[in-house]
Design brief:
The chain is mainly alpha-helical and 159 residues long. It has seven helices and no strands. The protein starts with a helix and ends in a 21-residue tail after the last helix.
């Protein structure tokens, strides 16, 4: 598993981890070293808050959640691509792997938006989705004030 998810020289493995790291928008919180332990325990990773007061502790939930999403979705896609390569004898070009990764992250964004705005419809859910994605989305483009209620997909920058 360690080899498949982190060490394999196959192009998609390194490309996907590089994409996840490049999309990480929090410079003050370092990207973790990816190992099998990091992947298996990604649900327990916490991004440290800058201060101990309640305001910053609350906003640290967003970066923590983004870490969970980037690591778990990346590992899952690497596994899927590996199975396609091993079972179906299918090779994956770098462009295909990066577009599939981006599509998977966008799917999670869409699911989050729908859950927060159409199903739960409460401030806590909206705030969590906003804290999770706002810095990521604002990294390369000017973010509309109502991005959470916008129907378009917003993560789309190239690698």
């Amino acid at each position: 598993m360690t080899h498949i998810l982190t060490q394999c020289a196959s192009a998609p493995v390194q490309l996907i981890w590089n994409l996840a790291k490049s999309y990480w928008p929090h410079d003050h919180i370092g990207w973790p070293e990816i190992s099998l332990g990091t992947i298996l325990g990604c649900g327990t990773i916490t991004a440290p808050s800058q201060n101990d007061d309640t305001e910053h502790s609350r906003t640290a939930r967003g970066p923590t959640r983004l870490l969970h999403i980037l690591i778990s979705e990346s590992a899952y896609l690497i596994w899927v691509l590996r199975c396609e390569r091993a079972i179906q004898d299918k090779s994956h070009a770098a462009q295909e792997a990066s577009s599939r990764w981006l599509r998977q992250i966008n799917r999670r964004l869409t699911d989050d938006k729908i859950t927060a705005t159409k199903i739960k419809r409460d401030k806590a859910s909206t705030r969590l989705v906003n804290d999770t994605r706002e810095q990521l989305l604002a990294k390369d483009t000017e973010l509309p004030t109502d991005w959470l209620y916008s129907p378009e997909v917003l993560v789309g920058r190239g690698p």
